[in-house]
Amino acid sequence: MSRTRSVASSALGVNRRSVLAATAAVSVSAGVGYALRPTDSRAATSASGAEAAGAPVAQSRTAPAAPLAPYTRGTTLATVAAPRTNSGFRRLGNGPGWRRGVRNELAAAKTGRAGRRTTLAAFVQLTDLHLIDAQHPMRLEYMRATDVHAWRPHEALTVHGAVSLVERVNALRGAPVTGAPLHFAMTTGDNTDNNARTELEWFLTVMSGGRITPNSGDPRRYEGVQNSGLKQYWQPDTALRDTDKQYGFPQLEGFLAAAVRELNSPGLNLPWYSTVGNHDSLPLGCYGLGDSWLAEYAIGGKKLMSLSASEAKKLQDSIKNGKDPMGTAFRDLLKAHVRDMRSVTPDEKRAPYTAADYLKAHLDPAYRGVGPVGHGYSSANVDAGTQYYSFRIADDVIGISLDTTDPGGHYNGSLGTAQLKWLDKTLRDNKDSYAVVFSHHTSTSMTNTRPDPARPGEKRHNGQEVVALLGSHANVLAWVNGHIHRNAITPHSAPGGRSFWEISTASHVDYPQLARVIELADNKDGTVSIFTTCIESSAPHRTDFSDLSQTGLAALYRELSYNAPGARTDLAGEVRDRNAELLLKKG
């Protein structure tokens, strides 16, 4: 039976009155988190045993007798999408795979380790899916007037790309190096793009399975910048000579109708966990919740689609420099351009959601999928107003999911004192287990320490303080994150020989659209190896412009992202940041 539900009957149900009331609430990123038992992940407050029993977590599994690995098929070790032409609109095809390198900055590689090692855990990281409601009035497409990459021609296909990534994960034979079964998948934030309830519903359905109609506003047709007739944007269905067609973008009659057509996600066949990012917590990923006019605008019937280059530059600088954390100047800009706006169909499902809404939606049985209930979150998180937790990955490994978003606004992150103390205590209480820490922000992007409006007296802590804390615990193996949309693997060493690896993975909205398989192995020689293997979606590399099926659109999503004007070419990172064996001394 289809898992599609009436929005009015789910945790994402909304009406105009509740939208405006919700904007007075502020996301709280500190408070009571989770305590840990070997068999479950549960709150440190009053979560009942019955609740814990209903929330199964990833358990240690024994690899099958017949080895599945090492293998390369379905990974970037075998092949990676690559251009078949060198100019114009570059069509993609099968390119050579990326080799695996050994990184020994933190420990020497000892011979014979492959024959001795045993697997500790294996899992998949997905990050920065950025599921986009491409017709949402709050979107900043008009900033393309000053920055050509401020709007992406492929944004209407984010759901198709995410479903194809789920299909790839489901098709993996197990861990590519060790052959161990995959324990779980973790998303490390920016699951949605604009803190919109439409996007949250799509994300949860992509991950857990069901039918999705990636459309909002008029249920019969698309109504956004891509059929606006504005040359600033790719107009795929018409022969209009727009800016992108001058770069060689094709005319694809029927593209927009196909993009908003219903599609199906099988849902992950693994337990999956969720980590929150700034785009999940803040409208546009940078503005604090609280302005009722902006909330009304989000669900209303007007949309600004063009802006002068000078005003667009001023807005971009304001966002970059954090000059308008609560969106006051942004609201005033929109008000000044009301007469320039175009009419669209109002839709209350486009409303912003609060931290409590996010948690309750994860706990909704409609989105349980393979589990666990809440995907890491529990009712104790709802009660405490927190979005961080710990969970048991395997017998000897714990996972810790942090909330690095700063509710005070701006896209970079930090941690409040209460969460930092909780992290320290969780690591101390589980000193006999290895630990993998998950967050959205990287250590270098945790530079935003403005106060949390809900806790104005609480100090915020930057990434270097988190690095120092993690380096003080011998059991930390890795800090896994996203946010920067680029593959980067960084060694961190601390006094006393303690060290860990920071593993940052590229997004799935910007090319090369990757996820990672991460394997932890004890080499039985005083070292641990962490294997990272990048994967693409299951969509074929070669596209066919006449194929507007679900799979064809997922392939086109990748090709359009590769050709997007202004797209960066360095997001895959160096060879050493992709497929690697990362060595560590055992603590």
Topology diagram in text:
Elements: H1 16-22, E1 34-37, E2 40-43, H2 49-53, E3 79-83, E4 92-96, E5 101-103, H3 113-116, E6 118-126, H4 158-171, E7 184-188, H5 197-208, E8 210-212, H6 243-246, H7 255-259, E9 263-265, E10 272-275, H8 278-281, H9 292-299, E11 302-303, H10 309-320, H11 328-336, E12 342-343, H12 355-363, H13 379-384, E13 389-394, E14 397-401, E15 415-416, H14 417-429, E16 434-438, E17 460-461, H15 463-471, E18 476-481, E19 488-493, E20 499-504, E21 515-522, E22 527-535, H16 550-563, E23 580-585
Parallel strand pairs: 5-23, 6-7, 7-10, 14-16, 16-18, 18-20
Antiparallel strand pairs: 1-2, 3-4, 6-21, 8-9, 11-12, 13-14, 15-17, 19-20, 21-22, 22-23
Helix pairs in contact: 1-9, 4-5, 4-16
Question: Could you walk me through the main structural features you see in this protein, from its secondary elements to its overall organization?
Answer:
The chain is α/β, with parallel strands linked by helices. Helices cover 23% and strands 19% of the residues. The protein is built from 16 helices and 23 strands. The chain has helices spanning 16-22, 49-53, 113-116, 158-171, 197-208, 243-246, 255-259, 278-281, 292-299, 309-320, 328-336, 355-363, 379-384, 417-429, 463-471, 550-563; strands at 34-37, 40-43, 79-83, 92-96, 101-103, 118-126, 184-188, 210-212, 263-265, 272-275, 302-303, 342-343, 389-394, 397-401, 415-416, 434-438, 460-461, 476-481, 488-493, 499-504, 515-522, 527-535, 580-585. The chain has a seven-stranded mixed β-sheet. A hairpin with a 5-residue loop joins strand 19 and strand 20. The protein is globular and about 70 Å long. Mean pLDDT is 90; it is low at 1-9 and 14-66.
